[in-house]
Amino acid sequence: MTTATAPDTATNTATTANAAPATAPTAPTAPTAPTAVNGRVIALAHYAARALLEGVLDRHGATFHQSVTLRVVAVAGGSIARDALVRDVTGSLKAEESVVHGVIGELTSAGLLSQDPAEASRLHLTAAGRELYERTTTEAAGITARLYAGIPAEDLAVAGRVLALVTERANAEQARP
């Protein structure tokens, strides 16, 4: 694109209008200007990041619900009471207990979770379950690192506090009669 040396707006306008268009982005982009936090902004960030995670999970034959369930067991040290697992996953996903029981059944059938033979109310990660959890977590961590790269720690801390408060308030609102 040529730039006029004199402040000739007619020439500059014509030059700009006739210039070749810039390459169009291949995917929608989020606004880069400061944006007030609201439900839509939070949802857009969640679904954009979740789509990337689900791509990782799809490559490994897992679903988002299965991933959340495996994470709860892994964070609990590889073993957890079934009732505690159902409670945690139900609270996290805002899913019905029957859905979570179904996911536990899928994971058990796939050999990713097993029932403790000595204590039927406990579930354990199997070696295959741990491997899947670790592999998908490692891949997701790389994506997360790229998404959060360059964001100042102070901004992440503020965002974390705000989102935790919104979550707390939403949970309280949902618990209201």
Short description:
This protein has 177 residues and is mainly alpha-helical. It is built from seven helices and three strands, in the order αααβααββαα.
Architecture overview:
- With 177 residues, the protein is mainly alpha-helical.
- The chain is built from seven helices and three strands, in the order H-H-H-E-H-H-E-E-H-H.
- It has a three-stranded antiparallel sheet.
- Helix 3 crosses helix 5 and helix 3 packs across helix 6 (127-148).
- The protein is globular and about 55 Å long.
In N-to-C order, the SSE pattern is HHHEHHEEHH
Structural class: mainly alpha
Low-confidence stretches: 1-25
Largest sheet: 3 strands, antiparallel
Q: Main sheet: which strands, in order across?
A: 1-3-2
Gross morphology is: globular
User: What fraction of residues sit in β-strands?
Assistant: 5-15%
- CA(first)-CA(last) distance: 63 Å
Total helical segments: 7
Helix content: 55-70%
Our Rg estimate from Cα atoms comes to 24 Å
Describe this protein with a few key phrases:
177 residues, mainly alpha, 7 helices, 64% helix
How are the SSEs ordered, and which strands pair?
Elements: H1 9-18, H2 39-59, H3 64-75, E1 79-81, H4 82-93, H5 97-109, E2 113-115, E3 122-125, H6 127-148, H7 153-175
Antiparallel strand pairs: 1-3, 2-3
